Amino acid sequence: MPSIEAINLTKQYGVFTALLGLNLKIEGAKCVGFLGPNGSGKTTTLKMFTDLIMPTKGQALINGINVHTEKKKALASVGTLIETPEIYSSLTPREALTMIAEIRGVPIEERKKQIEEVVAEVHMAEWIDKRVGKFSKGMKQRICIASALLGNPLIILLDEPTTGLDPRGMSEVRDIIKSLKGKNRLIFMSSHILSEVSDVCDEVAMIDHGKLIVYDTISAVTAKFSGGNNVVEVGLARPINNGTVTQNIGALASVVKTEKIDDKNLRIIFNGGLDVQERLLNDLVKLDVGVVSYKAASSELEEVYLRLIKATL
Amino acid sequence: MATNFESKNLVPISMTQTVIVTKYTLLDYLRSRRFFIMVIITGLISLLLTVLVGYYRPPSFLTNELSFYGSWWGNSVTFVVILSAIFFGGDAISGEFQNKTGYFGVPNPIRRSSIYIGKWIAAFIASLVMLGIFTVFTVGNGLYYFSGIPFEFVESLIFALIYMASVLGFTFFFSSLFKNSTMSILLTAILFLFVFSLIQTLVSVLVQIEPWFILTYGSTIISNVLTTPYPEHMITQNLGPQAGNITLTTFNATIPEGLAIMAIYFIVTTIIGLILFERKEFN
Q1: Is B24 in Cβ contact with A147 (below 8 Å)?
Q2: CA–CA distance from B115 to each of A16, B20, B106, B107 (Å)?
Q3: In this predicted model, what pLDDT tens digit does every residue of A208-245 receive, in sequence order?
Q4: Are A37 and A173 members of one domain?
Q5: Which domain holds residue A290?
Q6: For A75, which residue in chain B has the nearest alpha carbon?
Q7: Chain A hits for B107, Cβ within 8 Å
Q8: Do B110 and A103 touch (CB under 8 A)?
Q9: Strands A229-236 and A265-271: what pairing?
Q10: What is the reported pTM?
């Protein structure tokens, strides 16, 4: 089972403490969002898991192996994307990715196929033999994401992976991450975008001023810190009247409040976790109000974030 | 759609990874503008010498084989070596930080030492190409004016190669010291083209002690070996009563001494540079 673990992980720059005694263990195939304001220690943490910086105290373990004493072994099955890396400008994506594939020990007979697959996955196939020097920031970011996928790593560490991408690129990267979740991968990604985290991740770790504030499943965190309430947004095929919203839907078990966003969209605030969310969907279908979409709203996570993290640096 | 291949990776040994880094760094160098600029500079130096010697036929060049190689090769090869080392090694490590290329390579299952050594070998090979171009021109002209290649030239060529290794060791050390490429390139250039020569002159002429601790002093064996007889280790000269009986002492490194200076510089600077790169943080 893939795992990453921070044991009392601390990073100090003189008198400034970037990370203070982080203890966090993530195990299993899941996607964990790493949230926090600017300067909270997210990138510092990820850099210590990838040998880009050394901890002042504590250990960064990947699959139980210390990154700083046994780097090659620890990172053997880890794909990374930290900040926005640059690639040697004279190389083509094929050459740059071949270099990484060779370093990671991707078997020679699989190398070409893997490189072409990951490049196609980030929608850069037509650029595979063009020199990187001519690429935009977003294009380079896509190639770096492709590099993180090379060798089919069990653990993927991503530092704000959608930075620099256009909206379509952001959506494509989210789709890639979602598809990786179904392949028994542990994905640990930092992000500023709360909707991205609620859309993609199963769990969330929040950090502020170098300290871990909370780590749990998104539903547990939202339930715990928003008075046990969760929010779903419901899309309808046909307009709904106010009476149905307040009397029929509002009367369903566990529903705390209903809000009409417009004639065809509702916000339902309910008390409970995923089991209640599932039952509520069944109840709505039984009411025959024309449900065509049903998703957890990110605003709850946002509310929790703003409640837990009072001020940024 | 995610990739559907399964992992069968076996991370290669560090030596193999060093070769991988060398291969791709060299590929990057060979396609870079700086490589072509350096080829042009080396070619221009060689062509200029060819034209000037062919047109003016200076006696200092054409007295005999050794005087030719001494004047042609002995006076210019250290410049070609220093320039190549600055071009290919000046920002080899600092560039990993400033240009953020390190973020692409370092967070992989590879030791930093493999990256450092791989890049060093690539810079050495690229510099070797420049030395090769200059050697071809030197030998071509030498064979045009004289019949053979003196053994002393082969010795000088070997010393130049050792000097290249030590200059690159030093360049990489400086490159590891800074995160700013311009700073590392500029300081290395200033040190090798001006400061070392200045200290060497000041120490030997004014203080009158042997500048055994200066790399450029050790490199004088490259030109001295082309002089017959080999210059004396220490030459003392009295400037006479008109100059207040001032005594001037000139030092010439012996071959073992020159080799030792270059070897020590190479070993020490390479080790310190490597330690610095191992500890340097990407922040």
Answers
A1: no
A2: 30, 9, 8, 11
A3: 888 888 898 888 887 777 666 778 889 999 998 888 88
A4: yes
A5: 226-308
A6: B109
A7: 50-52, 75, 78, 80, 82, 157
A8: yes
A9: antiparallel
A10: 0.86
